[in-house]
Amino acid sequence: MTWQVDVLTLFPEMFPGFLGYSLAGRALEDQIWSLKTHALREFGSGRHKAVDDTPFGGGAGMVIRADILDAALQATKPMDDRPIIYLSPRGRSLQQADVARFASGQGAYFICGRYEGIDERIFQKHTIEEVSVGDYVLSGGEPAALILMDACVRLLPGVMGSDQSGIEESFSNGLLEYPHYTKPATWSDYSVPEILLSGNHGAIAAWRKEQAEQATKKRRPDLWQAYQQTSKQAYN
Ligand code: ADE
Question: Are residues 124 and 189 both part of a single domain?
């Protein structure tokens, strides 16, 4: 079955955006996944199709109305098991394991917010997973939704081809990637590490693992600590 994405947004024209130029765009053409956008504005109220209003209690900015969002969800979400994901800096920080979980399902509904956020009561009525793509604030959820889609689509069967790059890459084994080199073997004053030219596959694999460990230790002490913990558990 096709992996299906439905996006609720004030800016449907932002999709598929940069995904149209990448692996994900090709996969969209090949119908490995499908993307539907739903303009929140169409569910707006009154002559101006308003979707937001001022916050109770005062304060700056506007809040997207729960009744409008609910109407949009009711109209676009058939009875299926796809999760509803709300992109927000308040969400849980997206990890590769989450991406793998979403990619292994049937797809997702994405809610993209703007303004100060959405009326909290929407979370009482619907089961919604809040996801952040990092500890910084974007002006809207759309770029975050595109990021999450990109990460999921590349894991779908048939998208990356038969190579190993999905299995060996960063985060799925808990380590950052080892450094890569290609031709020419000598460029300017820089040469490729000798071992990579040795043809000794065992030694190359050991060197790469060592490099990946060193890079992780130096750049991402948090990942390194988690990696050590899991490898300890594996031996106990
Ligand atoms: N919307 C605004 N900032 C965001 C972030 N960091 N992650 C997900 N959605 C967002």
Answer: no
56 lines ligand 1 (CB under 6 A): no
Number of structural domains in the chain: 2
Question: How far from each other are the two terminal CA atoms of the chain, in whole angstroms?
Answer: 40
* Residue 136 known to bind ligand: yes
Rounded to whole angstroms, the Cα distance separating 68 from 43 reads 6
What residues pair up with 35 in beta bridges, in sequence order? 5
Distance 86 CA to ligand 1 centre (A): 9
Examine the domain organization and report whether 143 and 228 are in the same domain.
no
Residues 142 and 172 occupy one common structural domain? no
118-166 per-position pLDDT tens digit: 999 999 999 999 999 999 999 999 999 999 999 999 999 999 875 555 5
Residue 132: which domain range? 3-153
CATH number of the domain within which 9 lies:
3.40.1280.10
pLDDT in tens, 154-168: 999 999 875 555 555
Which residue is associated with the tokens 């990946």?
Answer: 212
Å from CA of 141 to ligand 1 middle: 5
Supply the pTM of this predicted model: 0.93
Q: Of all protein residues, whose CA lies closest to atom 10 belonging to ligand 1?
A: 88
**187 CA distance to ligand 1 centroid (A)?**
41
Structure tokens at 38: 């739903």
| Ligand 1 atom at shortest distance from the alpha carbon of 133 | 7
- Specify the 3-state DSSP secondary structure of 23: helix
pLDDT band, very low/low/confident/very high, at 77 (cuts 50, 70, 90)? confident
